[in-house]
Amino acid sequence: MPYRTLGIDLGTTNSVTVWMDGGVPVVLPNRHGEQATASAVGVDADGSLLVGSEALGVRDRLPGSVITEVKRLIGRRHADDDVQRLLAERPADAPPVRESTDGDGGVEIRLGAHWLTPVQISAILLRRLRTDAENTAGEPFRRAVITVPAYFTEPQFAAVREAGELAGFTVVRILEEPTAAAHAFGVERLVEDDDDMCSVLVYDLGGGTFDVSLLIIGPGYFKVYGLGGDKSLGGADFDSALYRMLVEERLGDRDLSGTGDAARIRAASERTKIELSDVPAAEIILAPLGENGGSWTGKVTRDGFEALISADIARTLEITRGVLRETSRMPEDIDKVLLVGGSTRIPLVRRLLTELFGEEKVNSETDPMAAVALGAGIETGLVSALACPSEQCLTTGIPLAESACPDCGTSLLGTATIDCPDCHVPAAEGTVSCPVCARDLSGLRASAPVAARAECPHCGCRQNSTTSTVCRDCDQPLDAGGLKCPRCQMVNASGLTACSACDALFHTDQPEQVTAQNLGLALDDGTVAVVFPAGTTYPTDWQNIEDLQVRPDTATALTFRFVEGPHEKSHARNEFCGQHTHLLGAGSGGAERLVLRVRIDENRTVHLAYRLGDGEEQGARLRRSAVADGIGRDAAHLLDEVHTHLAHFGDELKDAERDAFTELTEQLTATVRGETLGRSLDGFLDEARDTVETCRNARGWTANVSIGARRGRELGLGRLAGELGDARRALDAARERMDLPAMRAATENARSLWRQIDTATWRSMLAAHDAELGRFPESVRRSVLTTWDELRAAATRGDYADQDALHVKLNDLAGHSQAPVPTARKHRDSAQVFPERR
Predict the structure, then answer these.
(1) Cα–Cα distance, 43 to 516 (Å, whole number)
(2) Of 60, 177, 379, 479, which is the active-site residue?
(3) Is 60 a catalytic residue?
(4) Residue 554, class by beta-carbon neighbours within 10 Å (0-12 exposed, 13-18 middle, 19+ buried)?
(5) How far is 368 from 541, CA to CA, in rounded Å?
(6) Spatial CA neighbour of 198 closest among 207, 209, 189
(7) Distance CA 118, CA 166 (A)
(8) Domain ranges of the chain
(9) Number of neighbours of residue 409 by Cβ within 10 angstroms
(10) Beta bridge partners of 583
(11) Is 228:319 a contact under the CB 8 Å cutoff?
(12) Bridge partners of 146?
């Protein structure tokens, strides 16, 4: 097989890459020879990029320059209570964090001089992992399987996929970490010649998350039965607990204001935690400390440390028992308890699990630090087909040998990427300027691809092309990235779950995954229509949601919002899962029937098919990241104002105005649908609001001064009528150039001149204008025009008394005008409606 896939364990504290080499998963060391790369990204004093141990090495001398544990923030919103707790517990020397400026409510972290999202930081790390893996393996990797915690939410799944794509991968699978670990366990069982089904409970306590999964695995069978977890509980919390204890109880009133003090205490906390898994007590030496370079020495016992974290460990056991209850299992029904994650080395964890399940069931044979990565590598050998990565194309089942989607032409091999020299975020080769920091990238080119290793494992021939599947000299099959058969040792092609030579079944297979929590549709009354209960196996068939309707009334958009969580009475209390927004036509009103179907694909992506009233059925994927509700509401209101202005005055607009409103409509429509624009949405809406208001005022005052100039001449206003004519020409010129500052200045001048006309006179002018346009009942129209002629005559005579009387009469007749008043439709509070039950 010409295209190889990289397995990546993207961990909170450490990340590992694995590939299938000779039919077995093999860890690929990084450029420093390390089996794992610290999940740390930083910049040196000169702005150069540092990744892994390089970044950790500068934390003490460059506080605030290194980002760690970014996985805990990826795909999450700044306002979430859990995120706020995590931010409050970060060490003092951590980089600043703020709410995203692009309006999606996410998180931004400062790296050097730039503010980056967790997706962008993760992409930097993934690109480094890819580069090191290619240099070690001698193979190009343009596809990847990336692991995530099973209890990640849908937006977090999507964010990891986005980071992988930004790093230049086609992400063929987002794999849940406990499932990956079970892959590794299953392959290890191959040597036992054990054909029995095995009930496995995976207890995964990593650096930043906790997962527990119940799986059944056996020859040609792999199914997930239950999930539980906490995406904000892990070894980093144990480090924090020890850090706080040292600072608050042991170090007392010592000066801790020295450069790097926080980093040294944090590093000592992590090191002590690891040591206490092997020894009953650990000595800590901290030096220098404070501005004067003091020192401190102390001892922490295992019992003391376990007392600090006992409540957290007890919570993991509570979650584990919950999964057993939900799947109707007892501890004695479990065959193996698989320990995954570095924190499972803590003796308290193993002791409590042994008490619950029995010592013989707690498995210590599979390396807890490498199990997930090895499983990611095994998954690369099991993937049998690809899905098109394009959001607009739903093609699936594409053969692994294809380099592009046969239907839409989208590449299935990722993109060649370059690193921005300033912010270090990867960008596709050919990008003119960095979308993050605007650095000119036009002269940069991606490094030459690694030459694929084509050595034949049978005869040593190195002359095979990168697309060869058999050796040109000995005709033996070349390594194609699949699994080795335990019976005949045949190295199979990727995608096979049974040996192509002897038909022996592997002790693992493509997994049947399940949803972690209830997944449902938010309804207009605030409740949730549960579509897929927790534990639903996916991919699923299409599911109908019955008896729905929509009352568009005066709303701008219909929003399909999906949430996941246990709260059926209040969708706002659940986790946001994803949404799709359908723009409603201007004529919508009353109740319309809604037909809605939903399904989940193999990558846990939610697909919709819906029909509103008698309209055509439409399809969509859920957008897993969405702009904040307030931004979407404001954009919907503004979009309605734009539509109203175009409907009433489209024929009067200048070409430049029409072009600007067309572009504005496209951008506002994208914002209402939940798309970000690569810039601050608050700033965009401010600019858009200013454009609409400026254009609306300029058009209105163009009409007013035009009327004033013409009617003023008829009433003998002389100089003022001439100035009003000049104001009209200035407004026209500014509008033809779409020059907003000039339009504002010309509008203010027109308003100032208009104020020089007394109220009775300009009301008479407008009445005569409306009468000429037929905006009065016929009998009133004739009376207005006759009275206006009499007023002109009185003005010519200089008869002021007669003019005053005629103004009073015209002003009274003006009350019968039927001139349209262009106002935006009255909105609901949200400007967006949810479906409701019929």
Answers:
(1) 37
(2) 177
(3) no
(4) middle
(5) 35
(6) 189
(7) 12
(8) 515-626, 758-838
(9) 10
(10) 557
(11) yes
(12) 8, 174
What does the pLDDT look like over 655-689, one tens digit per residue? 999 898 888 888 887 777 666 666 667 778 888 88
Long-range CB pairs of 475-483, under 8 A, 24+ apart, other chains included: 478/454, 479/20, 479/21, 479/22, 479/23, 480/1, 481/1, 481/4, 481/5, 481/19, 481/20, 481/380, 481/381, 482/20, 482/23, 482/381, 483/20, 483/23, 483/24, 483/187, 483/378, 483/381, 483/382
Catalytic residue among 204, 211, 592, 640: 204
Known catalytic residue at 541: no
Report whether 555 contacts 833 (CB < 8 A).
yes
Please spell the DSSP secondary structure of 426-441, one letter per residue: EEETT-SB-TTT--B-
Catalytically annotated residue among 21, 54, 60, 71: 71
State pLDDT tens for residues 226-283. Answer: 889 998 899 999 999 999 999 888 888 888 888 888 888 989 999 999 999 999 999 9
Q: What SS3 state is found at 833?
A: strand
Amino acid occupying residue 472 = R
Residues linked to residue 19 through DSSP beta bridges, in sequence order: 26
DSSP bridge partners of 278: none
Give the CA angle between residues 101, 103, 108 to the nearest 5°. 40
Tokens of 53: 């141990």
Q: State whether the Cα torsion 318-324-328-330 is positive or negative.
A: negative
Name the 3-class secondary structure at 517.
coil
Residue 9 is among the residues annotated as catalytic for this protein: yes
Name the band, by pLDDT with cuts 50, 70 and 90, for residue 435: confident
Cα(700)–Cα(704) distance, integer angstroms = 6
Q: Which residues contact 732 (CB under 8 A, 6 or more apart)?
A: 654, 702
Q: How far apart are CA 420 and CA 782, in angstroms?
A: 72
H or E element at residue 546: strand 543-550
Q: How many CB atoms lie within 10 A of CB 48?
A: 12
The predicted model scores a pTM of 0.78
Q: What percent helix, strand, coil does the chain show, rounded to 5?
A: 35, 25, 40
The type of residue at 635 is A
pLDDT band with cut points at 50, 70 and 90 for residue 826: very low
Instruction: Tell me the two tokens of residue 408.
Output: 């839409």
Provide the pairing of β-strand 557-564 with 575-583.
Answer: antiparallel
What is the reported pLDDT for 815?
80
Please confirm, yes or no, whether 204 is among the known catalytic residues.
Answer: yes
Whole-number Cα distances in Å, 818 to 105, 580, 707, 769, 776: 46, 40, 18, 12, 6
Could you please state the CATH topology (level 3) that the domain comprising 515-626 is classified under.
Answer: Substrate Binding Domain Of DNAk; Chain A, domain 1 (2.60.34)
Q: Are 91 and 85 in contact (CB under 8 A)?
A: no
Which helix (H) or strand (E) segment holds residue 218: the answer is strand 210-218
Which helix (H) or strand (E) segment holds residue 53: the answer is: helix 53-56
Say if residues 636 and 673 touch (Cβ distance below 8 Å): no
Q: For residue 87, what are the CA distances in angstroms to 11, 41, 109, 392, 426?
A: 19, 18, 11, 36, 26
**3-state class (DSSP) for residue 166:** helix
- Rounded Cα distance between 12 and 148, Å, is 10
- Give the span between the Cα atoms of 380 and 400, in whole angstroms: 11
